[in-house]
Amino acid sequence: IPSECASFPAPLTSFKPSIVSWMFWFSCRTPNIDRLAAEGVKLTQHIAAAPLCTPSRAAFMTGRYAIRSGMGSTGRVQVLLFLGGSGGLPPSETTFAKRLQQQGYTTGLVGKWHLGVNCERRGDHCHHPNQHGFSYFYGLPFTLFNDCVPGEGSDILADLQKTLRSFTIFLGIGLATLALVRRCGLLDISLRLLVVLFFISILATVLWLTPFKFIPTWNCILMRNQEVVEQPMVVETLPRRLLTEAQQFIKRNVDRPFLLFFSMAHIHTPLFRNPAFSGKSLHGLYGDNIEEVDWMIGKMTEMVDSLGLANNTLMYFTSDHGGHLEDSNSRVGQQGGWNSIYRGGKAMGGWEGGIRVPAIFRWPGRLAPGRVVHEPTSLMDLYPTLKYLAGDTQPDRHLDGFDLMPLLEGKIERSEHEFMFHYCGIYLNAVRWHPPGSDSVFKVHFFTPNFSPPGAGGCYHTHVCQCFGKHVTHHDPPLVFDLFQDPSESRPLSPETEPRYSEILAQTAKAVERHRNTLAIRQPPHDATGVSNQMTWEKILWKPWLQPCCGTFPFCGCKEDPSHSV
């Protein structure tokens, strides 16, 4: 779950605000998170701009839908798959970290990035956090995948790996058969031909085996700024190291305006197995991980309070998307999380379970404790909110978020988000409309993912849902729900059940047209803003010349020296 912890010395007319932020995924016995909610403002309809990490984080960092920065997928792969790929958040984009850096903030990111590293050569770091406004970076330039832990299987194109492995076995058997036929004199087969076929098969095997067989080395690494400090990373000690780095960043910058984005590796599979928390929860290994997260949040809050920053610190806790319903196994059970009453989950387009996320803002002395806001809000709202608090009045690009402070402080009761647009890759999946003067929040679905097997609540055959072709069902007329009356999206509206049915379709159609005019759509390979699409196969697949490496490539390997912690 992404959480933002921001420190803003008051009054803002006299001091520069500082900002801190966390990211991870969430559920259970959570006294420290509960304390944040009790002491702050809770948002019950907080919406991620995409239902999975790479596009959601791109929108979160920029205050703009991912399609505007080329981070929306056109095909089956919806997130960056290899650290050695060339895709990522374009250098031309602006993040909230960069804006605050320009206002004199010291900025830091501790934890997960997953928005790319290199463009054209190893070491150009064009997508790296340091190039996107973060003065300091320590953590995972990629993400935490099952591939990072032996015995947990693979998350990266597992079906393709299986096909290529079968092809290699078939090729080997074929060559052995030809050699045997030649030896027995059954056919006159040239030895030269066999040798050529042998070397071709070896080359073909190496070309696919190298990127997939060594995924832990290529993807599961730690960096401090632009230096690889551990490859592959030791997962067991990762949470403590990230927490320590986040705490040290605050200590180093306690007397100056700062932004810290603490982007936790929890709760992403593979789940951590920390002996201090194992078996402590009522919800198995998943619950143990949640309670470890809560403990870490408590340590961060304790750090802020003990340094006397509580009344000058805005803390923001949220998530980049909903739980991954299809992620379960017989040993652990459900390990991808649950989404309560909300339908769908991670990678399921506009269904509420994949995009409605927890959100808490805490700022003692500025925000009234215990306040609850039920209005639609977005992760993209953080960007303009931080700009306002930092006193940044410089011109900017088209933003899709709004400053949240008037809503959080109770100066206004209505969200500025009359409409929200929900994407599945680059495809507009659904639209949310909160009519003026009404409690209703209507959701219009233009298409929905086809769950598998039929009747299931997710895409269990493919592990994640797809956004195109045979994987979706288009609806004409669209499916319409009133989330105020039906938050689980289980009772579609019709002209007979909803007097405003025709108006809903007409208003959302006009909103879509206005929204698309702001995109100035271009044809692939360029996205809506003319930025090259970052999620094509050409950019996603592994390129050895882009692979971050400690040592001499391809002999990459190192362990972090704890004494070198900054």
**Considering the protein shown, what is the CATH homologous superfamily of the largest domain?**
Alkaline Phosphatase, subunit A
The gyration radius over C-alpha positions equals 25 Å
CATH topology of the largest domain: Alkaline Phosphatase, subunit A
Uncertain spans: 1-15, 23-27, 521-529
Beta-strand percentage? Answer: 15-25%
- Total count of helical runs of at least 4 residues: 13
Q: What is the terminal-to-terminal distance? A: 25 Å
* Classification by helices and strands: alpha+beta
Please tally the β strands and state the result.
Answer: 22
* Main CATH class of the largest domain: Alpha Beta
Q: Write the CATH architecture name of the largest domain.
A: 3-Layer(aba) Sandwich
Proportion of helical residues: 25-40%
**Rounded average pLDDT:** 89
Biggest sheet, open or closed, and with what strands and sense?
11 strands, mixed
What does this 3D model show about the protein?
With 566 residues, the protein is an alpha+beta fold. It has two domains: 17-144 and 220-564, Alkaline Phosphatase, subunit A (3-Layer(aba) Sandwich), CATH 3.40.720; 158-214. 28% of the residues lie in helices and 17% in strands. The protein has helices spanning 31-39, 53-62, 96-102, 158-183, 191-213, 215-219, 238-252, 284-306, 352-355, 382-389, 405-408, 501-519, 537-540, and strands at residues 3-7, 19-23, 41-43, 46-47, 106-112, 136-140, 222-224, 227-230, 258-263, 313-318, 328-329, 333-334, 356-357, 359-362, 371-373, 377-378, 419-424, 427-433, 442-449, 472-482, 551-552, 555-556. Strands 1, 2, 3, 5, 6, 7, 8, 9, 10, 14 and 15 form an eleven-stranded mixed beta sheet that branches. A four-stranded antiparallel beta sheet has the order 17-18-19-20, covered by helices on one side. It has a three-stranded mixed beta sheet with strand order 13-4-16. Strand 21 (551-552) and strand 22 (555-556) form a beta hairpin. Helix 4 runs antiparallel to helix 5 and helix 7 packs parallel to helix 8 (284-306).
